[in-house]
Amino acid sequence: MTERVTDIKKRVGHRLVHLASGETLKVPHALFRLHPLKVNEEIELAAYAQKISAEEGRYALEAAVRMLETRDRSVLEIANKLTDAGFSAKSARQACDKLQTLGYLDDARYAQLTAKRLSKKYGAIRIRRELRNKGIQEQLIEDVLEESDTADQVEAAIKIISKSYARQKGEPEARYCRAYAALARRGYTPDVVKAALEAVIAEYEPDSSDV
Fold this sequence. Notes:
There is one protein chain. With about 210 residues, the protein is α+β, with helices and mostly antiparallel strands. The chain has three domains: about 1-100, Arc Repressor Mutant, subunit A (Orthogonal Bundle), CATH 1.10.10; about 105-145; about 150-205. The protein has helices at about 30-35, 45-65, 75-85, 90-100, 105-120, 125-135, 140-145, 150-165, 170-185, 190-205; strands at about 1-10, 15-20, 25-30, 40-45. It has a four-stranded antiparallel sheet with strand order 3-2-1-4. A hairpin with a 4-residue loop joins strand 2 and strand 3. It is elongated and about 80 Å long.
C-alpha cells in the first residue's frame, strides 16, 4: 500500500511520521537517518516497515548499551526507554534478553545497588515503592530489604532529622509530630521512626517526658 507522508515531527529519541491515511510511524532517530523520509514523499508502507524491522534489532541493542554507560538500570526501565524511542516491543525484549545473558542487565544487582543508595535518605517503604516502579519482582525486593539492618535504618533516620529537630520551636508534642511526619514521608516504618525520635529526644531533651 502506497502512503503519502504529510508531516514529520522530531521527538525525544524518535521521529513521528504522519501519513495521509491518519496513521503514524514512530521511527528511532538512528533508523530514520538510515532510511530518511520527506514530507509529501510517497512510500510503500510495507516495504519501509520491512527495512526498519530488518535493522532495528542491532540499533536497539546499541541504544540499550548506551543507556547503561551512565548507570545501572532495571530490565523494565531499559525496555520502556527503547519502546519510547520508537523501537518495537519485540526488539526491546530481544535487546534486554541479550544484555541479561551477557550480564550487563541484572535486576538482582540493580535492586541491591538502588536499595543501598536510597537507604542513605529513605526508608524501606519508599525503597519498596521505587523498586516496584522499576519493575523489580516482589521476591527480589523482599530479599534486598531483608538484608537491610534495622539499626542502620534508625541511624540514617537520626542523621536526617536531628538537626532540623534541634532548630524546631514549639511544644514537645508538636515538634515530635512534625518530625514523625517528616520521616514517614521519606518512607521509614513506624518502628524505625519511633526509635530514631527516641534517640533524638534523648539527646536534645534529656529531661522531657515521653510525648
